[in-house]
Amino acid sequence: MSIAFYFLIPLKFLLLFWSSEINLPVAHAVFNSALLDFLVDLIPFILLLIYGRKLLRSEWQKIASLKKYFVNVVLGYLVIEIIVYATWSFFPSPVVGEKIINYATPSIILFSTSGLMAACVEEIGFRYLFLRDFSGRFKDWILLLTSSFIFGFLHIFLSHSFLGTIPYMLIGLVLGLQYVYHKNIWYSMGTHLLNNFMIGTLPAIVVYLMHH
């Protein structure tokens, strides 16, 4: 395993902090915000592609049945949706609000793929490293809860409050359980990718098509 994996999440933290300090002009705020998100996720994603492509290829080849794989991914996504809407009234968070997109251009659609890149980076950092590389050093349930907590807390840049990160922590728990059960990063990654596609990229595509 590449040591570069250990730098993925810290790098994203630093980039998120950097982006939060930038004062964007009010004009074209949607475009500027989407561009910043895209750059924040692009840099760690490129690092992952350079050092992790062999791992991802190897893990994919271990999947015995694509049908069962996609069924598990969809089920995982549905569980996440239930959690999000069940906790929305108690812990308001942009997890649901992110779906509301009123303005889209081809550039916005491209930038919306930042969520897909983030899913790949976060699954390696929070699931693969915590639940595989650290396995044996600590009890699995401790690693599962710790990774879920840190995963949720990372999203404080979106929720702007600790309570708002709780739905993300629960999402991290679902993804972690997927990895623990299947022992293959593509299960949690697939679910994460589907979720981020549904709340980010797909709405942008739909809005663009509705206005063109």
Automatic annotation (TrEMBL):
The keyword Plastid does not apply. Keywords: Membrane, Transmembrane, Transmembrane helix. It comes from the Bacteria. Residues 108-198 form the CAAX prenyl protease 2/Lysostaphin resistance protein A-like domain. Pfam families: Rce1-like. The chain crosses the membrane at residues 29-49, 69-88, 100-121, 141-158, 164-181, 193-211. InterPro entries: Rce1/LyrA-like_dom. Belongs to the UPF0177 family. PANTHER family: MEMBRANE-ASSOCIATED PROTEASE-RELATED, PROTEASE. This is CAAX prenyl protease 2/Lysostaphin resistance protein A-like domain-containing protein.
